Amino acid sequence: MTIRRAAVRLMAPESIALKTAVGLKRSRCQPACQAITRSLRHSSTTAAAQSPWANFTQAPPDPIIGLTEAYQNDDFPQKVNVGVGAYRDDSGMPFVLPVVRQVEKEITAEELDHEYSGIAGCPSFVDLAMKFAYGEDCVPLLEGRIAGVQTLSGTGGLRVFGEVLNSFGHTEIHIPNPSWGNHVPIFRNAGLDVKTYSYYNKENSSLDFEGMIADIKNIPEGKCILLHVCAHNPTGMDPQIDQWKEISSVVKEKKLLPFFDCAYQGFASGDARIDAASLRLFVEDGHKVALVQSFSKNMGLYGQRVGALSVVADSQEEAQRVLSQLKVHIRPSYSNPPRHGARIVQKILSDEQKTDAFVEQCSSMAGRINSMRATLKQTLEDLGSSRDWSHITKQIGMFAYSGLTKEEVTVLREKHHIYCTLDGRISMAGVTSKNVKYIAEAIHDVSK
Questions:
Q1: Does the annotation mark 261 as catalytic?
Q2: Which of 323, 296, 312 minimizes the C-alpha distance to 119?
Q3: Which of 94, 173, 197, 271 is surrounded by the fewest CB atoms within 10 Å?
């Protein structure tokens, strides 16, 4: 017999008793352990239910971003996205201006640093942006009476100025009906009550000038009114210069503060001077205007977020005080703007040859869009449509306010896989020589 077996035999009675006792204890403990486990699981579940984010509801998707996501998830081969306000070439691809490519190479070769810009951004960019909008012969600009800052494109400038208005006693702002969809949340989030004035007659797809003038006359004295410099978004329908003169007169009579949104200068007609006519008229008439500019569309710098905000003051000293307030609101918001896009614009607008190249290339983009307008209108007529589509060619800029109803737009999307916003706004940049016939046939089908 081995030592191990002997030991086992000697310990067997005690060992058996011990194992039996331990087994009984485990058996008796099992229900209690299970109860503890269940309690811990419940506590964990309760803790999860008490998450600080538990009462967060799912926000609705952005009307335009959500549209793009739906388009991307659609596997239909002939799908078309005419919802996003970004230029596409005739192949339907994003387009980078050749002059922008050239300048980017020059900037890379210079091996510039990536230090912060000041709160007001790049001074040379701001100066050139103001000359581009107001004109080099603008009297307030020559007299140093315009305060200007670089902003996060037009959106950032709108928000900053909305906050400034709110902090100096303005409680409301009046915008055209309709207007760019983001205007309302931007100004509301800045603390302003957003009111509207008549702008567009949907029944005959035209500018409602009489309604516009009547509503402006009813705006309380001293309030802020938002005006689109050119290529009104979403309608593409702008007042004529004589109509702008009357608008200027009424705004002055009511002592309103005109705030111009300029997102398409040079891109609307192809001529930057023509596109800035409304703004320059107001300044010549003596208005102390505010202006927000974006270089997303005209220079194709969508992702660079390049913009400017400026205010015409009564004197240099007043302009400096206004500038200080703009900076006070920028600092806690985004501290200072990015530099790369501003450097691109600065290099283009500070060089005569590059500026000429930009004007030509911008005009080419506008020309392609105008060509697609004419083709779309003609194709709809050739298909025998009973509707009047003349407004398509009367409108300018990136968008065509088609006149399609919400129901027709829904069918357009579900049956023909063509994606535009529910108000019938079509981004003409998404219309190409390859898909214009398909788009026209689909519009004709849903609008019979």
A1: yes
A2: 323
A3: 94
Per the listing, tokens 């969508």 go with: 302
> Which position among 215, 261, 275, 423 bears the catalytic label?
261
Largest CA distance in the chain: 121
- Write out pLDDT tens, residues 334-374: 999 999 999 999 999 999 999 999 999 999 999 999 999 99
- Catalytic-role residue among 215, 244, 275, 297: 297
| Residue 354 annotated in active site | no
Decide if domain 63-95+364-446 falls under CATH 3.90.1150.10.
Answer: yes
Q: Name the strands in the sheet holding 306-312, side by side, starting at the edge strand that comes first in the sequence.
A: 146-152, 306-312, 290-294, 257-262, 224-228, 172-177, 193-198
Domain 116-350 adopts which CATH fold? Aspartate Aminotransferase; domain 2 (3.40.640)
User: CA nearest 410: which of 419, 401, 399?
Assistant: 419
Decide: residue 198, CB within 10 A, 0-12 exposed, 13-18 middle, 19+ buried.
Answer: middle
Residue 320 neighbours by CB under 8 Å, 6+ apart: 147
| Active site annotation includes 389 | no
